[in-house]
Amino acid sequence: MVEETRPTAKELLSLPRLAPLVPMLYVAWTDGELTPAEIRMLGTAARAQPWLDLRSTTVLARWLDPLMPPAPHELALVREHIRSAAQRLSLSPQESLAELGAKLAEVASEAQVLHPSLPELVSALATVEAALGVSGREAVRALVPSAAHEPRRIGPSEPTSFAPEALRAVLDRTYPEVRSKVREWLEAPAFRYPTSPQDTGKQREQVFDWMKQLADQGLGRIAFPEGNETGADLGAFIAAFETLAFFDLSLVVKVGVHFGLFGASVLFLGTERHHREYLPKVASLELPGCFAMSELGHGSNVRDVKTVARYDAEAGNFVVHTPSDSARKEWIGNAAKHGRIATVFAQLEVGGKALGVHALLVPLRDEQGRTLPGVRVEDCGRKMGLNGVDNGRLWFDHVRVPRENLLDRFGQVSAQGEYTSSIPSDGRRFFTMLGTLVAGRVSVACASLSAAKSGLTIAVRYADTRRQFGPPGATEVRLLDHQTHQLRLLRPLAKTYALDFALEYLVERYVKRTEEDAMEVEALAAGLKAYASWSATAVLQEAREACGGQGYLEANRLPALKADTDIFSTFEGDNTVLMQLVAKSLLTDYRQRFEDDRVYAVLKLIADKAAAMADRNPFAARRTDSEHLRDGDFQLRLLRYREEDLLASVAKRLRKRMAAGVEAFTAFNQVQAHLVALSEAHVERVVLEQFLLGVEKVQDPGLKTVLGRLCDLYGLSCLESGSGWFQEHGLVEASKALAIRKEVVKLCTELRPDAVALVDAFGIPDTCLAAPIGLGHLSP
Amino acid sequence: MVEETRPTAKELLSLPRLAPLVPMLYVAWTDGELTPAEIRMLGTAARAQPWLDLRSTTVLARWLDPLMPPAPHELALVREHIRSAAQRLSLSPQESLAELGAKLAEVASEAQVLHPSLPELVSALATVEAALGVSGREAVRALVPSAAHEPRRIGPSEPTSFAPEALRAVLDRTYPEVRSKVREWLEAPAFRYPTSPQDTGKQREQVFDWMKQLADQGLGRIAFPEGNETGADLGAFIAAFETLAFFDLSLVVKVGVHFGLFGASVLFLGTERHHREYLPKVASLELPGCFAMSELGHGSNVRDVKTVARYDAEAGNFVVHTPSDSARKEWIGNAAKHGRIATVFAQLEVGGKALGVHALLVPLRDEQGRTLPGVRVEDCGRKMGLNGVDNGRLWFDHVRVPRENLLDRFGQVSAQGEYTSSIPSDGRRFFTMLGTLVAGRVSVACASLSAAKSGLTIAVRYADTRRQFGPPGATEVRLLDHQTHQLRLLRPLAKTYALDFALEYLVERYVKRTEEDAMEVEALAAGLKAYASWSATAVLQEAREACGGQGYLEANRLPALKADTDIFSTFEGDNTVLMQLVAKSLLTDYRQRFEDDRVYAVLKLIADKAAAMADRNPFAARRTDSEHLRDGDFQLRLLRYREEDLLASVAKRLRKRMAAGVEAFTAFNQVQAHLVALSEAHVERVVLEQFLLGVEKVQDPGLKTVLGRLCDLYGLSCLESGSGWFQEHGLVEASKALAIRKEVVKLCTELRPDAVALVDAFGIPDTCLAAPIGLGHLSP
Question: Which positions fall inside the Acyl-CoA oxidase/dehydrogenase middle domain (chains A, B) (predicted)?
């Protein structure tokens, strides 16, 4: 009768002939994934062992009856038995269940039992273990955690291949003294995030106070040291701005509005008398200013703003007026609270003639902060982020400003009401004035880069310390040793480094721009602003998710980074609109290439095509070796080919439509997606090109290697995400597409040991980062 | 001497022979994009006109001298001249510059001049206009806006093809009465968002107050109408939850924690005495509860939590203890403020034996809200969103709870300290208990869907009213008539509709699950939770950006929607971890397919392969006609093929590694990206399959057509984004990849007129939506 119930653990353990099988008999019931069929199969294999007697066989069969699982406390007894016996053994971490069973049988007090010799036993048991269908070694580690298994790190564990300080010097290569000065300012005790949540009012005062301190330290003098255009160094100002962007982004944006947009409008649109009167007050923040361009009805299409500035020749002044509610100035930074004056963009009317958009200085508040007559201000209210910036709406009710308040560099009005300008076309004049916005776009791109660096620093450091999941019985594995985690953080890290070099190039082009290449620089700024801000949005989203719940806590700063930068893809030009601007500039350039010198253009096109076609030959399209894939020239050639091809094809599609009588606006609208694809292709090519040039300049071999890996990772990621297009055009064959994917994974593995050093090199002060999970001293 | 300076506008206009050319002479200088070469070319063409005399020719040449641009006020004079003359003409909107010029010449008072006849003149001028190289028709409209040009909508303008109410009935097809009851509750005046920003404390009280009102209305009874498992209808509860998610998401999550997680833990892990004692108090919210599973050190890997519950047989109670700081319960909703009791997951120890994770009810606060002895609570602090939910941390210092507090459905402890369970394996028992989380995952997926619907409703309605840019002289175009805008909003709209059908399937499978398919349903829930929450994150980001600055204002609610749902990809199972779980379940299933019936499995595999191979033949891979592309079976076959292929290849890669002695954890880690790709492929296939089945069931032909288009858009978008893979595997050739891209654009154009009706059909109450830019009554 006893035989008909299931055997107890005690019974099982009392049978010496079953001793070698005990570990497997335990695992059979505790591995959650074993199916009844597998348990039966194990029983069959076990019962075939020659040393078993009838009683052992019977108990064994019942113990493994899928219809009668043992009670948990019985299993717990078996486990305790194995554990206590195992303590007397010296087990290696590579022990199999068969080896463990054999050793247990050997040390069992009933050693007189006629077992085969140890090697024979192990080999016999191995067959049984195979029937079990689970990894025996892992089961042993789970079962006997006391067996001295070393905590291991999965993946490479070599030390960092370079000194972060050396790489930081590379990243700080332009205006290093400006960058270190700003870092110093930010490390002063005044620049600490408030410890408790603040209401909007307090937050705005805090930000204004910080800005005042920066002005006192001389931030304004970085931009215009001489108080006029002669000594102006916007490159230095942008470097300061980029460094400031490691800290509170409301402060950064408010600084951008006052010193950048407002200050630059006085500098570039005004003339000497404006410089003399206003620039010192801009630098000292005595006269906080606004940049009032956008209107409710016209955010992107600012050429059609409706605010009017009519010249009254009799009175000798301008009448600034908001003709309708949709013409109200919208989203104006500094307007809700601190701004005392604004550069207002309005349609100029002189002597009944409409002369297009011009900018005028319009006072908003007196020294006590009271709004002036005729000016109405409304607060935009709470936003997703940047609540330290006081955005407001402005209405002007026939507000009169002196004739001198016209910023008249590009268009002048005499006292008698005669208008003059060196630029005849309203349109072209307006776009020349818009040139002042270019510095803003360059700055937003750089601030996006800094915010992405902050997010990556937090996420990479956290991923290097946080452990989750791991092999049974061993220490859990660091997040950054999980493959998916490497891909989600190291690809964006490569892109961030790539952008660092591309933006250096942009700033240089901007600072050295001439009238000839101004349009090209504007397009470059538009494209990189869009690319960098979208990249920041994606990086910060990924960083937030990669930090799990910790990333959701305000204390860890990722929420603020994400929310504050989200508008970067909208302000200073909506990204989608900017991308179309880039494409149109490429198209103009394309047309001119043919117009200026038809023969040269055609020859060049043929040469370009020939070089690119080399990649289309089946041999090249199939090359899959690492050496070839990690050849920057190869990567770049493909990106160039794509850009040229998209350009030629969109030009063809447009010509076809126009020839068929489709009006330009509609024709462009019908190929909008194509235009955006072209711009993306163009920007990616420029970024990779600049990254390659940047790496070339680096001397230190260690730095060159790690930057080279990042550059390959960026280049191959571009090819990976564009894989559909490249295959479609015969540049990449199936085997190569697969090889590219694998190479990306491989590069991540190679970069893994350097990941923390790569974010340390960003040199973000801990007080700016301020995320408990991402501080420098936490990393090992 | 006069001839050496540039001619004035007056001079130009005084020459009757130049009259026909005046519009072109104006445009030459005002079109910003004309190069000097082009201006010269125009001059050459103009001077060739036979009717010009010497003086006209001289003035003409000087007027077009690229080195001497006219002054802006001169151009303004010319414009005024043209405009006033044009007022006397009846102009069609299709007038060319040549036609305008000819008509102006005709009406000019100096009609005696010997011009050719009107048709001849127009034809002669057309040559000149061609030399100008700009679109004459657009230039005319910009120049003479008074010419009665009708404001036009670009793109299709047919009326909506169906009634939104009819489609809404389709979307509300399951539990319609529950959905309409909840909508009714939400439309009560008490459920209004506060008009001013609230501090955390107030926000929490508001949310608790709302929750109490829902409890009073009978929300709890929807889940367990009988107060026990018999009548439990979690499907109805999930439908209520999904509808609630149109409103404040803090409320939704708090409801989910209390009624969903806490209530379900009592229902499913407890036994009759727990049901009797607790469920009524859960339903009435008399006893607000928490679900304390996650720990600081173990968020994803909850099987290894460290909190201990040791049974003290003498005292007859459990001692619950937090052994270290990393074992503190983290992120526990309801814990910081309102929770009075918690379901605590802890390692159970009975009689010195470790029995794995079990759940116990542990009281936290008394009726006055005072924390009980031994319990320590800390507030998690401010989060990115969901600040109406009081997340907290919990530490237990040897807290004693009665033996009866063990939720003992799957494991019982007798008074004497004997442990029993119907599930022998600790692991399997734990995963059975985790089954309670499945409802949570299904609910999160459904709430994600609702949030995405809210975001799309706002963005689509705004895009349908907001105008920006347009052809010169015409009304600006609605955002939704821009191609890029259609792509960015209508593709996500299609995905959202697809998910609506897929989640209906998930809820049905969940409600009807049996022990046999429980694992499969869990994997389905995991996959769809990840897919739906990631989709919501992407949709809301896109919606925010698509609304520009307006989308950044808190008043328009997109910031809250984005911030509140951001954690959906993390909680109730981190998405990346869930995707691996899905892949592992597919692998287990794959193994069993062979194990259960080798012959059948092999035959089925061959049949599947054969069907899929049909698409690999060059003919099918090259088919590019709409009819073929819009064949749901074709789309589905490709998604199925990809899934099967990824499954077979990852199984092979894993086998290879294991055979080479790589331990399972490492082997899986080395193919993690592949596993995630497999899961995505699987989920996309399921979603498309369910969408197709759902559309098939719809009777109304109008609805069937529009849903069919959405389904095609979803299916083809999947093929478009996976284009690289499909080409790599010979399923799609270059021409087909291109055709798919074009078909996606075409579908967006076709769906454009229905876009607003498609979001109206979601039936989100305006009081819930509460975004001024997205309210229903604003749409035309």
Answer: 290-399
Instruction: Looking at the complex, report in whole angstroms how far the Cα of residue A672 sits from the nearest Cα belonging to chain B.
Output: 6
Share of chain A above pLDDT 90, in %: 64
Nearest chain B alpha carbon to A330: B549
Angle between helices B136-143 and B97-107 (to 10 degrees): 50
List, as ranges, residues 672-691 from A with C-beta within 8 Å of B: 672-673, 676
> What CA dihedral angle connects B377, B383, B388 and B389, to 10 degrees?
-40
User: Where residue A318 falls among pLDDT bands split at 50, 70, 90?
Assistant: very high
Residues in chain B with CB shorter than 8 Å from the CB of A771 are none
Mean pLDDT of the A104-111 span: 65
Dist CA A700 CA A705 (whole Å): 9
Instruction: Give A541 to chain B, closest Cα distance, Å.
Output: 9
pLDDT at A656 over 70: yes
pLDDT at B110: 52
- In the prediction, which pLDDT does A561 show? 98
Both tokens of A753, joined, read 């040991």
Contact B567, A552 (CB under 8 A): yes
pLDDT at residue B134, rounded to an integer: 67
CB contact under 8 A, A484 and B426: no
pLDDT tens digits, residue range B51-66? Answer: 888 888 888 888 888 7
Report the C-alpha gap between B537 and B565 in whole angstroms.
7
> For all residues of chain B together, what is the average pLDDT?
89
Residues shown for chain B? 780
Please tell me the class of the B190-422 domain: mainly beta
Question: Is the CB of A123 inside 8 Å of chain B's CB atoms?
Answer: no
Q: Do B663 and A76 touch (CB under 8 A)?
A: no
Question: What is the pTM for the complete model shown?
Answer: 0.85
What is the C-alpha to C-alpha distance for residues A363 and A370, in angstroms, rounded to an integer? Answer: 11
Would you state the pLDDT for residue A150? 38
Q: Report the SS3 class of residue A348.
A: strand
At A122 the pLDDT is 75
- Whether the pLDDT of residue A598 is over 90: the answer is no
Is A575's CB within 8 Å of B70's CB? no
Domain A440-778 is classified in which CATH homologous superfamily? Butyryl-CoA Dehydrogenase, subunit A, domain 3 (1.20.140.10)
Structural contact between residues B29 and B63, judged by C-beta atoms closer than 8 angstroms: no
B102 with B120: CB under 8 angstroms? no
- Nearest CB to A669; choose among B331, B418, B482: B482
* Burial group, residue B64, by CB count within 10 angstroms (0-12, 13-18, 19+): buried
- CATH 2.40.110.10 range(s) for chain A read 188-422
Judge residue A571's burial from the number of C-beta atoms within 10 Å of its C-beta, 0-12 exposed, 13-18 middle, 19 or more buried.
buried
Provide the shortest C-alpha distance from residue B617 to chain A (in Å). 16
**What is the per-residue pLDDT across A113-129, written as a single tens digit (0 to 9) for each?**
556 676 777 777 777 77
pLDDT, position B542: 98
User: Is the minimum CB–CB distance between B470 and chain A shorter than 8 Å?
Assistant: yes
Which positions 729-748 of A are in contact with B (Cβ < 8 Å)? 729-730, 734, 737-738, 745
The answer, yes or no, to whether residue A154 has pLDDT greater than 50, is: no
Q: What's the confidence (pLDDT) of residue A4?
A: 61
User: Do the Cβ atoms of A413 and A419 come closer than 8 Å?
Assistant: yes
Could you say which architecture CATH assigns to the domain A188-422?
A: Beta Barrel (2.40)
Closest-CA distance, B425 to chain A, in angstroms, reads: 4
Q: What pLDDT does A602 receive? A: 65
How far is residue A256 from each of residues A222, A571, A657, B32, B348, measured CA to CA in Å? 13, 12, 42, 29, 59
| Residue B610 binned pLDDT confidence (cut-offs 50, 70, 90) | low
Residues of each domain in chain A carrying CATH 1.20.140.10: 440-778
